[in-house]
Amino acid sequence: MQEVRRTLAVIVLMALLTATTPGLASDSTAWRDRKDVVDAFYKLPLRQRIDAFPTYGFEDQYAIYLYGSQAREPPAIYLAKPFAAQGGKVVAPLSLRLGETKNDSTIRDVVLVFSEMNRQHSYNIADDAKLMQLLRSAVSRMKNPGWKQISEKELASIQP
């Protein structure tokens, strides 16, 4: 029940901040080239989406996840769970994307996946010094104070 409340609180906060923050752009470059896959995925019923998500390759999962969390209302942050469940398999490509992006929304969304990995114990993030430094660096360069605060809390939940 606590997890459901936390998820609902994050969804509401994400919707409010997005609606009230001018200039907070989504990272459409992440899904633009995979629009057909993304559109087909979101035409599926919710249960089928959750079940199907792990069957996609990383690039499609990444596009589906970012589109869902940045362009859909309510945001599809529930996909952070199956994304995070893959643990070490997605750490390197997610880390690469995190290091490359300057987009606050993308940093927030990737940090959420890593935070969820920590909760699921699917990857020992706190013991990965290089990853922890990357996470700290990414969060520190965020411009939007609301998203930065949320990401700092997610990051704090990872640290030992």
Describe the 3D structure.
With 160 residues, the protein is mainly α. It has one domain. The protein has helices at residues 2-20, 35-43, 46-52, 58-70, 80-84, 88-100, 104-120, 129-140, 145-158. The radius of gyration is 15 Å and the shape is globular. 35% of the residues are buried. Residues 15-24 have low confidence and may be disordered.
Mean pLDDT: 87
Structural class: mainly alpha
This entry's quaternary arrangement is single chain
Query: How many domains is the backbone divided into?
Result: 1
- State the total count of DSSP E strands: 0
Helix content: 55-70%
Distance between the termini: 24 Å
General form: globular
Descriptive labels:
160 residues
List the helices and strands and how they pair.
Elements lengths: L1 H19 L14 H9 L2 H7 L5 H13 L9 H5 L3 H13 L3 H17 L8 H12 L4 H14 L2
